[in-house]
Specification:
Elements (H helix, E strand, L loop, with lengths): L5 H8 L3 E6 L1 E14 L6 E14 H10 L3 E9 L2 H12 L7 E4 L6 E7 L2 E8 L7 H15 L5 E5 L8 H13 L4 E4 L13 E2 L3 H8 L8 H15 L3 E5 L5 E5 L2 E5 L12 H15 L3 H9 L1 H9 L1
Parallel strand pairs: 1-4, 1-8, 2-6, 4-5, 8-9, 9-10, 10-11
Antiparallel strand pairs: 2-3, 6-7, 11-12, 12-13
Helix pairs in contact: 2-8, 4-5, 8-9
Length: 312
């Protein structure tokens, strides 16, 4: 189908269902003022003024998908703990469904607490289990994923944070099942499972992840080097396409035997966290619509700007 404008594409996004598989977490923030050092130890005393908890990890991608107009279905494993209860409340508060969430008695719900004074982050405290799922949890997750795919989802996103929800078996079972249902698969990888994502439709690493995954030195502004590395990656994983984000050097998209380079759009941004989540969300929706490579790459490259306009 042809789309004559971005408005047409955004309207088409609203008809899509997206399954997001990956590690979810709570991003917790405590703000306060520091005006003295503790008498108990040489550390600052933070006089707390405000606290906030937000959805993080794969749940942030689900929020991106929702804000782009599509229907997200989040599939993950959380702990059977107080933080897990808080996570489910956050889903409800953000109008996100919880039918894909599994609770585990052997794992913690990942929570990252950041303590800030003014604009300065003073400390981060991580509360998490990052070991692989036990066998029963893994089987439960795979069964859950297959049932959700059968609910006519249009695309599957793997949002991997190396916290143990995703492993080689989960990847293989999901990719094979999705392929049998003609559902495209999109990957936002991390180091642990980087080389297990074989036969996917679109693989979206950033430059650092590509360097680590292929164990090579690579400069984002050296296009012959980038072309060679992406070809090695596609051959190694048998990926149909690769979307590589190059930070200040823009993006590189390799699909259908073509290499597309687009320069970065420079703008003043105070917080770039979550930009990769926006890129993978837009790319997945474009892929589900069957948009041509130039349109997919162009919208993905405009991701942060486009997303900011949607939120206004």
């Amino acid at each position: 189908m042809d789309y004559s404008s971005i408005d047409d594409i955004l309207k088409a996004f609203s008809k899509l269902k997206v399954l997001i598989i990956g590690d979810v977490m709570i991003d917790a923030y405590t703000w306060g003022k520091v005006d003295r050092i503790s008498p108990e130890a040489p550390v600052p005393v933070v006089n707390v003024s405000r606290r906030e908890k937000r959805l993080g990890g794969a749940a942030n991608v689900a929020m991106n998908i929702r804000e782009l107009g599509a229907t997200p279905i989040l599939c993950s494993v959380i702990g059977d703990d107080t933080e897990g209860d808080e996570f489910l409340h956050l889903l409800k508060d953000n109008d996100l469904p919880d039918q894909g969430i599994i609770r585990s008695k052997t794992r913690m719900t990942t929570t990252k607490l950041r303590v800030l004074s003014g604009s300065q982050q003073m400390m981060r405290i991580d509360h998490e289990t990052d070991t692989p799922l036990v066998n029963l949890e893994e089987q439960s997750l795979i069964g859950h994923i297959k049932r959700l795919i059968d609910k006519e989802v249009d695309v599957v996103i793997f949002e991997d944070y190396d916290k143990g929800t995703i492993n080689e078996h989960v990847i293989q079972e999901t990719v094979d099942y999705a392929k049998s249902r003609n559902v495209p698969t999109v990957v936002d990888p991390k180091k642990r499972n980087f080389n297990f994502y074989k036969n996917v439709t679109l693989f979206k690493p950033n430059l650092k992840e590509l360097r680590e995954g292929l164990h090579l030195e690579l400069h984002g502004n050296n296009r012959p080097e980038v072309d060679k590395a992406v070809k090695v990656l596609r051959d190694k994983l048998n990926a149909e396409s690769v979307l590589l984000t190059l930070s200040e050097h823009g993006i590189h998209y390799n699909a259908n035997g073509r290499s597309i380079y687009l320069d970065a759009h420079y703008r003043r941004i105070s917080d770039v966290s979550g930009a990769g989540d926006t890129v993978v969300s837009i790319a997945a929706l474009c892929l589900a619509l069957g948009l041509d490579p130039d349109t997919l790459a162009g919208l993905a490259n405009l991701g942060v700007v486009l997303f900011a306009n949607i939120l206004v």
